Design the sequence.
C-alpha cells in the first residue's frame, strides 16, 4: 500500500542524508573540488584585480563544475550499487525524484556557501550588494541543483554514465551561466541592481521548472 | 508524396543588392535557421507523443526530427560563418546569437550521444524522449531570449527591415523548397528506420540472413540490398 | 547561382534514389508478409 507523498519523499530524503552523513562522499568530492578550484583561480589571478563580471564568471563556473561532479551521483550510485531495483519496489518515481532533488539542493547549497566564502576571501572580492548576492546564490543553487539532478536522472541507466552525464548536462546548463553571471556580477559590484535581481529570479524560475518537470520525465525512464 | 514539384523551386536568383556577392548566402542561412528551429520544435512534440503512446514510430520520428534539425543547424552555422567571414572579417566572433545557436547544436548532438549509450530500444527511446523534453527550456532560452539580451552583430531583419521585397521572395522560395526537401528526407528517414527495425526483427526470427546490420543506432539513410 | 543549383540537383537525385530503394525494400517486406506492395510502381 503506497504511503502518502510526504512520507515517501521524506523517506527517500532521509535515506540520502543518512548515507551521505555516513560516507560524506558527495560533500568531500564537491568540497575538495571547489576548494582546489578556488585556490587555483586565486593563484592564476594573483596580482590581477578581478572585475565583478570576471569574478562572477569564475565563481559560477566553479560552482557549475563541482555540481556536475557530485550531484548526478544521487542517481548513478543507485544503479552501480544495485539498489535501484529495491528503490523501484519501495517508492513511486515522483517521490524518488523529489527526495533526491531535495537532498541535492542541500548539497549544492552547502557547496555554494563553502565555495563562496573561500572565493570571497581568497580572491579578495568586495561584495557590493549582499542582498543580491544571497538571492543570486539561492537562485544559482536552485537552478544548478534542479538542472544537474535532472541530467543525472536521465543518464543513470546508460553506459559510461559518468562521462555522459557531463556531456548531457553541460549544454543544458551553460545557458544558465549567462543568467548566473549577470546576477552575480551585480552582487560583486557592477551597476544595475534591478537587472541583477531579475536575473536571480530567472535562475529561480529555471530551477522551479527543472524540478517541476523532472519527476514526470524521471517517471518515464524509471522502469520496474 | 509528390515532392517532385520542388524541382521547380530552384532559383536563388541573381540579386546583387549586397556589397559582395557572397552575401547571398543569407538566402540559405535564414531558411536553414528556420528549418532547424522547426524540426527542433517538432522533436519534443514527437517525444511527448512517444511517452504517451509508447509506440516506437514516435521515437523514430523524434530521432529523425533531431537528425534533420542537427543537419540544418550545422548548415546554419556554416553559412553564418561564411557570411560572417565576408562581412566582418572573421568567421567566429563569439557573437551571442552565434554562440547560443552553437549551444543548441551541441544540445542536439548530445541527444545522439545519449541515444548511443543505450542498447535496449525501449530504454533508449524513453530516455531520449525525456532528454528532448528536458531540453526545451534551455533551447527556448538560447534561441529566443539570450540573443536579445545582449548586443549582437547579428542583423535583425525580421523586425527592423532592411531587406528588399525581392529578397523576401527569394528567401520564401528557398524556404519552401528547403522545407519540402527536408520534409521528404524526414519521411524517408522514418521509413528507413521502420525498415531497419523490421530487418532486426526478422534477423531475430529467421537467424539465417548473412547480412548483419547494426541495431538500434541512428544511421544515415541507406537500405541494404539483399541479393539472393 | 549555379553551384547551389547543382548541389540541390545532386541532393534531389540522391533522395530520389533513396526513395526508390526504400520503396523497393518496403515492397519486399510486404511481399514476405503476404501483403500487397505499397507503391503502384514496379520494384526497381
Sequence:
Amino acid at each position: 500500500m503506497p504511503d502518502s507523498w510526504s512520507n515517501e519523499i521524506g523517506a527517500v530524503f532521509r535515506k540520502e542524508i543518512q548515507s551521505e552523513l555516513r560516507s560524506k562522499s558527495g560533500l568531500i568530492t564537491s568540497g575538495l573540488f571547489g576548494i582546489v578550484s578556488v585556490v587555483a583561480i586565486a593563484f592564476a589571478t594573483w596580482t590581477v584585480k578581478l572585475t565583478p563580471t570576471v569574478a562572477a564568471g569564475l565563481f559560477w563556473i566553479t560552482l557549475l563544475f563541482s555540481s556536475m561532479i557530485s550531484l548526478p551521483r544521487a542517481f548513478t550510485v543507485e544503479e552501480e550499487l544495485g539498489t535501484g531495483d529495491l528503490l523501484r519496489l519501495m517508492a513511486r518515481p515522483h517521490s524518488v525524484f523529489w527526495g533526491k532533488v531535495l537532498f541535492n539542493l542541500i548539497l549544492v547549497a552547502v557547496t555554494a556557501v563553502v565555495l563562496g566564502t573561500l572565493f570571497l576571501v581568497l580572491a579578495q572580492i568586495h561584495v557590493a550588494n549582499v542582498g543580491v548576492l544571497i538571492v543570486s546564490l539561492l537562485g544559482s543553487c536552485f537552478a544548478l541543483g534542479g538542472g544537474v539532478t535532472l541530467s543525472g536522472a536521465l543518464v543513470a541507466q546508460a553506459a559510461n554514465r559518468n562521462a555522459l552525464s557531463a556531456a548531457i548536462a553541460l549544454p543544458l546548463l551553460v545557458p544558465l551561466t549567462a543568467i548566473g553571471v549577470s546576477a552575480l556580477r551585480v552582487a560583486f559590484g557592477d551597476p544595475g541592481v534591478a537587472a541583477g535581481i531579475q536575473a536571480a529570479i530567472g535562475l529561480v524560475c529555471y530551477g522551479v521548472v527543472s524540478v517541476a518537470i523532472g519527476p514526470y520525465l524521471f517517471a518515464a525512464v524509471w522502469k520496474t | 508524396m509528390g515532392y517532385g514539384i520542388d524541382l521547380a523551386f530552384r532559383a536563388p536568383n541573381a540579386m546583387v543588392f549586397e556589397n559582395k556577392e557572397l552575401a547571398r548566402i543569407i538566402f540559405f542561412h535564414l531558411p536553414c535557421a528556420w528549418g532547424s528551429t522547426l524540426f527542433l520544435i517538432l522533436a519534443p512534440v514527437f517525444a511527448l507523443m512517444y511517452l504517451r503512446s509508447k509506440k516506437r514510430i514516435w521515437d523514430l520520428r523524434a530521432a529523425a526530427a533531431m537528425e534533420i534539425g542537427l543537419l540544418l543547424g550545422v548548415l546554419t552555422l556554416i553559412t553564418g560563418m561564411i557570411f560572417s567571414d565576408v562581412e566582418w572579417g572573421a568567421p567566429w566572433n563569439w557573437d551571442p546569437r552565434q554562440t547560443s545557436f552553437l549551444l543548441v547544436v551541441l544540445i542536439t548532438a548530445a541527444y545522439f550521444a545519449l541515444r548511443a549509450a543505450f542498447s535496449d530500444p525501449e530504454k533508449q527511446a524513453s530516455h531520449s524522449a525525456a532528454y528532448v523534453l528536458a531540453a526545451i527550456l534551455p533551447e527556448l532560452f538560447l534561441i529566443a531570449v539570450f540573443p536579445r539580451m545582449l548586443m549582437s552583430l547579428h542583423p535583425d531583419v525580421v523586425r527592423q527591415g532592411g531587406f528588399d521585397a525581392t529578397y523576401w521572395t527569394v528567401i520564401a522560395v528557398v524556404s519552401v523548397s528547403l522545407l519540402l526537401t527536408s520534409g521528404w528526407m524526414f519521411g524517408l528517414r522514418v521509413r528507413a528506420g521502420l525498415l531497419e527495425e523490421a530487418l532486426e526483427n526478422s534477423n531475430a526470427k529467421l537467424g539465417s540472413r548473412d547480412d548483419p546490420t547494426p541495431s538500434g543506432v541512428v544511421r544515415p539513410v541507406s537500405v541494404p540490398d539483399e541479393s539472393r | 547561382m549555379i553551384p547551389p543549383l547543382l548541389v540541390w540537383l545532386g541532393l534531389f537525385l540522391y533522395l530520389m534514389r533513396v526513395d526508390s530503394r526504400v520503396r523497393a525494400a518496403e515492397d519486399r517486406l510486404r511481399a514476405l508478409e503476404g501483403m500487397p506492395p505499397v507503391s503502384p510502381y514496379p520494384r526497381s
